[in-house]
Write a structure and sequence with these properties.
By secondary structure, this protein is of the alpha/beta class. 39% of the residues lie in helices and 18% in strands. The chain has a single domain, classed as Rossmann fold. The protein has a five-stranded parallel beta sheet with strand order 2-1-3-4-5, sandwiched between helices. Strand 4, helix 4 and strand 5 form a beta-alpha-beta unit. The chain is globular, with a radius of gyration of 15 Å. Bound molecules: flavin mononucleotide. One of its GO terms (cellular component) is cytosol.
Length: 185
Amino acid sequence: MAVRILTLVGSLRSGSHNRRLAEAAVHIAPEHVEVSLFEGLDTVPFYNEDIDAEGSVPAAAARLREATAEADALLLVSPEYNGTIPAVLKNAIDWLSRPYGAGALNGKPVAVVGTAFGQYGGVWAQDEARKAVRIAGAEVAEDLTLSIPSSVVRFAELHPVDDPEVTEKLSGVLEGLASRAAATV
Ligand SMILES: Cc1cc2nc3c(=O)[nH]c(=O)nc-3n(C[C@H](O)[C@H](O)[C@H](O)COP(=O)(O)O)c2cc1C
């Protein structure tokens, strides 16, 4: 059976380079790996403990939890906003971190990659994302990294799937994440 990797993208804009990077992951997934994109992170309300109660969990948040629970591993694909994680991704992590000790991220293999305009390719945001999911109980693949600088310039005309350096490194991340997921089932 294929290893299922769910990607969460930390940018909502239609022309997002990170979204395209996630699309590249779908496209180049190794034979035994199935990569999908979670759609609708923008419809997940801000995390609020008052509504995180039986019968009150918003449908979009419940859908995010279900999709994550069904996946064998998660790939977070994110830019950096003001030196840290974009709010939309942090919000998703917060929903996935609860119920405490039993959230959908608990024990889930997670890798974090991304592209940003700055010269370090968004490493601060990616490191913060790793920290947050680690605290939420995920098995973070610390060594599977990919931070692509100059997003706006590098991908102005070029889709990441047509960038051999990117696809080679991204394939390595997918292979590594898939083998970690296979080892945890
Ligand atoms: C609100 C905001 C804050 C940003 N802060 C950073 C930053 O701290 N570091 C950085 O490298 N790029 C920063 N950028 C530039 C983004 O990295 C760049 O626009 C990136 O391509 C956005 O990702 P996307 O193409 O997936 O939407 C920022 C962009 C926005 C809109």
